[in-house]
Design goal:
This protein has 154 residues and is mainly alpha-helical. It has helices at residues 39-48, 52-64, 68-78, 100-113, 118-148.
Length: 154
Amino acid sequence: MSDIVPQSPQKPQYRPRGKPWPKGQSGNPAGRRRGSRNKATAMAALYLDGEAEGLVRKAVEMAYAGDALALRLCLERTIAPRRERPEPFRLPPVETAADLAPAMAAVMAAAARGIITTGQAAEMASVIATRLRAVEIDEFNRRLLMVEHGDTPE
């Protein structure tokens, strides 16, 4: 005899993939309230309350004693991370597609001379490419209007 129980012909129902909940309702409507803090974070804040000054003093003492990790920690918290600063440089006006090559040459020259960083040069190249698309669209619209009005495009 067999101990196998025949299974029902229905397959188990699974939640649909993607967004199974109606808009505006989460899977747990009675979930964590907005603005509530993690319990571990709150406990750590209570534990360290009033001790921050002593901990900082100890870290500075360890840094003076030659502890490289403490020195690094102190410097990271004291000195703000360096961000790219805007540097002015001459960029020729870009009115037509023919003006884009001199503009890119100006960006490359500024990067080569060290006036701007390579990251800033890449951002400027992206801006110039966007300007190129805008110029091309404007030129296309101008030609389309000329054709619609019966004029011949130049």
